[in-house]
Design brief:
Order of helices and strands of chain A: EEEEEEEEEEE
Largest sheet of chain A: 6 strands, mixed
Order of helices and strands of chain B: EEEEEEEEEEE
Distance between the termini of chain B: 37 Å
Structural class of chain A: mainly beta
Shape of chain A: globular
Radius of gyration of chain A: 14 Å
Radius of gyration of chain B: 13 Å
Helix content of chain B: under 10%
Oligomer: heterodimer
Strand content of chain B: over 45%
Largest sheet of chain B: 7 strands, mixed
Number of strands of chain A: 11
Largest interface: A-B, 24 and 26 residues
C-alpha cells in the first residue's frame, strides 16, 4: 500500500530564509504527487503537482518541488520565506496503478512558522 | 474556478443527535470525498463516491454514512453524534480518482 511521510511536524524559519519541507512516499508504480497548503480555518489549496515529464515542478507563491524517483522524494522548497507563507503544508500521493477506488493518500502535515 | 461549498463553517451539536453535513461542487466532477482532520493525524478519508448513488468506505467509516443522490451534492451523516467525532470535516471533489482534489472551506464540528 502506498504511504506518505512528511519529516518534521513543525518547521521554523526566519523571513527571507530558505524553506525546505520534506516528503517521502512509497508507491508500487510511478505516482502522481501533490503539495497542498492550508491557511488557518480554511480548506486545502493546491500548491503544485507532479504527473509526468519534467521532474522540477513550479507552483504558486514561488514554491517548487522536485520529484526524485531514486530517493522516492518530493521535497517542497522556496528560496525566500515570507510571513504570509506561515501555514500547514500537506504532501499527497496517488497510485494510479491500483484498481479504481484509490483516493489521494495524505501525509500528516508540516506546520511552517515564519519569524521576522 | 472550481468551487466546493460546505453548508456550515461551524456546528455545535449534542451527543446522540443526528448530524448532516452537506457539500456541493459546481464543476460536474465525478468523484467526491469526505475527510476528517485532527491535529497530528492529518487528513483521514471517511468515505468517497465515484458516481451518483455509489460510495466506497475510506479508512475510518465507523459511525458515519453518506448519501449522493445528485452528482453535485455529497452528504455526510453522523447517525448518533459522539464526542469523539468533534473534528474538522473537509469535503473535496475531483474529475478523476487520483487526480487533483479541490477542497471546501471545512466544517468545524463540536459535539458536546
Amino acid at each position: 500500500a502506498q504511504s506518505v511521510t512528511q519529516l518534521g511536524s513543525h518547521v521554523s524559519v526566519s523571513e527571507g530564509a530558505l524553506v525546505l519541507l520534506r516528503c517521502n512516499y512509497s508507491s508500487s508504480v510511478p505516482p502522481y504527487l501533490f503539495w497542498y497548503v492550508q491557511y488557518p480555518n480554511q480548506g486545502l489549496q493546491l500548491l503544485l503537482k507532479y504527473t509526468t515529464g519534467a521532474t522540477l515542478v513550479k507552483g504558486i507563491n514561488g514554491f517548487e518541488a522536485e520529484f526524485k524517483k531514486s530517493e522516492t522524494s518530493f521535497h517542497l522548497t522556496k528560496p525566500s520565506a515570507h510571513m504570509s507563507d506561515a501555514a500547514e503544508y500537506f504532501c499527497a500521493v496517488s497510485d494510479l496503478g491500483v484498481e479504481a477506488g484509490t483516493a489521494l493518500i495524505f501525509g500528516k502535515g508540516t506546520t511552517l512558522s515564519v519569524s521576522s | 474556478d472550481v468551487k466546493v461549498t460546505q453548508s456550515s463553517r461551524y456546528l455545535v451539536k449534542r451527543t446522540g443527535e443526528k448530524v448532516f453535513l452537506e457539500c456541493v461542487q459546481d464543476m460536474d466532477h465525478e468523484n467526491m470525498f469526505w475527510y476528517r482532520q485532527d491535529p497530528g493525524l492529518g487528513l483521514r478519508l471517511i468515505y468517497f463516491s465515484y458516481d451518483v448513488k455509489m460510495k466506497e468506505k475510506g479508512d475510518i467509516p465507523e459511525g458515519y454514512s453518506v448519501s449522493r443522490e445528485k452528482k453535485e451534492r455529497f452528504s455526510l451523516i453522523l447517525e448518533s453524534a459522539s464526542t469523539n467525532q468533534t473534528s474538522m470535516y473537509l469535503c473535496a471533489s475531483s474529475v478523476g480518482l487520483g487526480e487533483t482534489q479541490y477542497f471546501g472551506p471545512g466544517t468545524r464540528l463540536l459535539v458536546l
